[in-house]
Amino acid sequence: MNTTIPLLFAVFLFYTCQPPHPVEQETDRMPNIVIIYMDDLGYGDVGINGSNIATPNMDKLARSGLVLTNGYASSATCTPSRYALLTGSYPWRNREARILPGTAPLLIDTAQMTLPKMLKQQGYFTGIVGKWHLGLGDGNVDWNDKINPGPNQVGFDYSFIMAATQDRVPTVYIENGLVVGHDPEDPIEISYQQNFEGEPTGKDNPEMLKMKWHHGHNNSIVNGIPRIGFMKGGKSAQWKDEDMMDTFLERAKSYVTQHADHPFFLYYAMQQPHVPRTPHARFAGTSGLGPRGDVIVEADWAVGDFMQTLEELGLLENTLIIFSSDNGPVLNDGYYDDAVEKNGDHLPAGPFRGGKYSLYEAGTHVPFYISWKDKIKPGTSSALICQVDLLSSLAQLVGSDIRARDSEELMEVFLGNSEEGRDNLVIEATSRTAFRKGNWVMIPPYPGPELNQQVNIELGNSEDYQLYNLETDISQQSNQAGSNPELLEEMIKSFALIRGDNSSAVKALELK
């Protein structure tokens, strides 16, 4: 029998069924991948973007690689952006992807593909150190037992996290599902509905506070700071806020040291400059702008110290480093900490309008830098990219055939080899969405206040369509919706193809 044809067919199948080749490297070892993710850091908070705050280490990282001037978070708030970064999916596709309480169940389905899962399949050891805020367990967590599911069930081999945010309970570190320093004789109880009998609160016991609350932060007191939510017990496990930067930094350094001989992924999710702003004594008063400026200086030092560790380990030549922020800036976000009073002429949002919670540019247009020593040529790129693109792009880098629905393959952009970024992008802010296409941004009509008075930030709400040309009007002062109806209609229709027929933009169009 002639075996030539079956043999050739088998060879054909072998080669055509192989996963895509990774982006060509000079070494057989896959590059380490580190994401340094800030919390509420604005575009204008970094020195390279004109900040009044000294950030020499962030600037050095930016100048060592590619500065992405059109880099976006997916959302103007934290949980949705983190969800998009790890899943490659727009957060508005998941109705639960909003700012979560500390007792929320795990937001990411354990069967869902994630960035760390994809990298694990390619042989990486995967870890997260820092802020999680994507829910834990099934909504009925026993904080005195193994917490499951969590980061370790969605792709991370190692996790050392805070459950939610620094201003929310539980105020404990969790390592691989177990509360660090837990004392069985002092069990932890958490509630977001009611206080525990006999436990002091910021609202009722102002004499116990070292930081006064402005709005929303008047429940349980930990370390003299009133929080969101109620907590009882766990005294030996409670973190000291002023030591948090050091704690996360040491864990991050230990992680890369332990895994220096094997390809690793580290999601280093720093907590600065989110409230409560609690700089260590080494950094208190160093910025001249109050605690908010001080914690940015503190975070910059941590970035430098972490980078020095990579250098000492000889890892910089084979480590891809991505630096960004989960959303834009906010000054007063719940505490009296002189952020407003001492801000002076500093512009946290840079040239942009709005801030955290806003559909205007400052909500999602964030610092975005990517560095890889001797692999990425220093420079700038104006290509439109988003954090949601990291999953598919990094899959492309490491030779994985996994892609995510909303995540585009833009590795050549990240490497500085192409300016062909996204054609369009849907951005989100507290369940509202807007649309960027080319240099234009369209914000649909939304009911509600134009200004969030608690934080003094414009939300982007209006009874009318808003259309801005970011090439000529980066601060979004001139609404072109009325003078350019054909482009507006084209933007709405393009938006509808992605967002769906239930979007407010489409409904408003039908009413015209």
Distance between the termini: 72 Å
- Major pleated sheet: 10 strands, mixed
Main structural class = alpha/beta
Task: Strand order, main sheet: write it out.
Answer: 7-6-5-4-12-1-13-14-2-15
Structure description:
The structure is a single chain. The protein is an alpha/beta fold. It has 3 domains: 32-179 and 240-419, Alkaline Phosphatase, subunit A; 189-232, no CATH class; 425-511, Arylsulfatase, C-terminal domain (2-Layer Sandwich). It has 10 helices and 22 strands. Strand 6 and strand 7 (178-179) form a beta hairpin. Helix 5 packs parallel to helix 6 (290-312). It starts with a helix and ends with a helix.
Give a quick summary of the entry:
The protein is an alpha/beta fold and 512 residues long.
Topology:
Layout (H helix, E strand, L loop, with lengths): L3 H13 L15 E7 L17 H8 L2 E3 L2 E2 L5 H10 L27 H7 L3 E7 L26 E5 L10 E3 L2 E2 L9 E3 L29 E2 L2 E2 L3 E3 L11 H15 L5 E6 L20 H23 L6 E7 L42 E4 L7 E3 L3 E2 L3 H9 L12 H4 L9 E6 L2 E6 L2 E4 L7 E2 L4 E2 L7 E4 L15 H15 L4 H8 L1
Parallel strand pairs: 1-12, 1-13, 2-15, 3-16, 4-5, 4-12
Antiparallel strand pairs: 2-14, 5-6, 6-7, 8-11, 9-10, 13-14, 17-18, 18-19, 19-22, 20-21
Helix pairs in contact: 5-6
